[in-house]
Amino acid sequence: MSLRPARLAGTITVPANKSVAQRALIASALAGERLADPPQLRIENPGADIVSTAHAMADLGALSIDVLTDDLLVATCYGAPETLGAPDSPLVLDCGNSGTGMRLLMGALAGLLADREGAVTLTGDSSLSSRPMERVAAPLREMGARIETSKGTAPVTITGPAPLHSIDIELPVPSAQVLAALCFAALAAPGTTRITLPGPSRDHTERFFAFCGVDIRREGAPQTRTTITGPARLALREFSVPGDESSAAFWLVAATIHPDADLTLPSVGLNPTRTALIATLRHMGADITVTPDDTTGPEPSGTIEVRSAPLLSPITIAGAETADLIDELPILALAMAGAGGTSELRDAAEMRVKESDRIALTCAMLTAAGIDVTETPDGWRITGSPRRYPSADAPPVTIRTDGDHRIAMAAAILTASQLAPRAIIADDPHCAAVSYPGFAADLAAVTERRDAPQQ
Ligand SMILES: O=C(O)C1=C[C@@H](OP(=O)(O)O)[C@@H](O)[C@H](O)C1
Ligand SMILES: C=C(OP(=O)(O)O)C(=O)O
């Protein structure tokens, strides 16, 4: 395969939405005890984070994994068993690399251990073990939970019994993960819990809980308030998990900046709290068409078509916009680099506490490619150019990913899009599997060789 294809064309089915799939898997523990008629959850193209969370839920005893292949995960959801470890010998669940898995499980376990004796410890890989967990633990403690972190990070232990009560809380960070954790806990907290966020965040929790019959509402914008009344039980229902908007993002940017591209992405999630990248790219001049599907589940989906856009305008992303684009910012940096003029990202310091310091690594990647970028404490400034390099004159350079899937995929797209005069090689391309196991195969499949010079 050419790393620098002359054309990108074809159809790509992106992996399952990992926010939605992990919420549904974790909900399997909260649907009541040992369900008589257990529902099945079917997840097509599960990434490694989804699989980690499925294994954690199986180890908890809440579900069985009936099918697990590269293309399909089928789980039967039974509800959590009565016994969940013991205070002197906690059950240990490994969340792998998944921040969503660990944080949402903290809330779900606080709910499960509200009225039972037991203890569960959540662990993760080295990246996850360096990420902040007090942002979830502290508000859960305010609800009555007994949670210990290790100096603010994993391992995290939740101990019961610790009865919960409803709260009215304003969170300092617009985090959908913290919001979701508190919503899971609120199911076990009698009364009305109100959670106010300083800005927008993805609303998968509200959609999924409402789909499962829970009284939950979100109001306001850009500051949002979610209200949920407990005690409540999730009535699990079968539904199809759409493709992940953040995985589709790589192809949206790739086709937009590549000089000759035409890609079709069927069954991608179109949740309005996740489509900011489409709006942003269109604002820059991208050629994107969206055709919605007929859907009945909690999440809308549709087919996205995207073609090359010869001239892109620069853009500034700041304030509340950063939360709507939080996982897409490393790949959006490439669109900024391909636009004629200076683009800016501000107010995105949150990127520094993801799987890696994504501000530092994105800037290092662009610098290695010869792109004019300045790192700032909460973002970057990029002076882009519409120039493309169909052949690579400069020698390839390897960049650091720190095991971050989104940096590894951005590096491959940076090379494939002809944005730089050299190939940029991720030091660990396989970490893409965290969210997108088939990424390299999909890139190969849409690559047309023609007479493209090989690199
Ligand atoms: O709720 C979710 O599923 C997620 C929320 C975001 O994290 P924060 O809530 O920490 O911003 C996002 O970065 C993550 O990939 C998934
Ligand atoms: C930040 C991410 O995921 P998580 O927080 O679930 O590890 C991501 O997928 O970009």
From TrEMBL:
Its EC number is 2.5.1.19. Monomer. 3-phosphoshikimate binds at K18, S19, R23, S175, Q177, D327, K354. It comes from Bowdeniella nasicola. InterPro entries: Enolpyruvate_Tfrase_dom, Enolpyruvate_Tfrase_sf, EPSP_synthase, EPSP_synthase_CS, RNA3'P_cycl/enolpyr_Trfase_a/b. It holds the Pfam family EPSP_synthase. The active site is at D327 (proton acceptor). SUPFAM superfamilies: EPT/RTPC-like (SSF55205). Catalyzes the transfer of the enolpyruvyl moiety of phosphoenolpyruvate (PEP) to the 5-hydroxyl of shikimate-3-phosphate (S3P) to produce enolpyruvyl shikimate-3-phosphate and inorganic phosphate. This is 3-phosphoshikimate 1-carboxyvinyltransferase. Belongs to the EPSP synthase family. NCBIfam families: aroA. It comes from the Bacteria. The keyword Zinc does not apply.
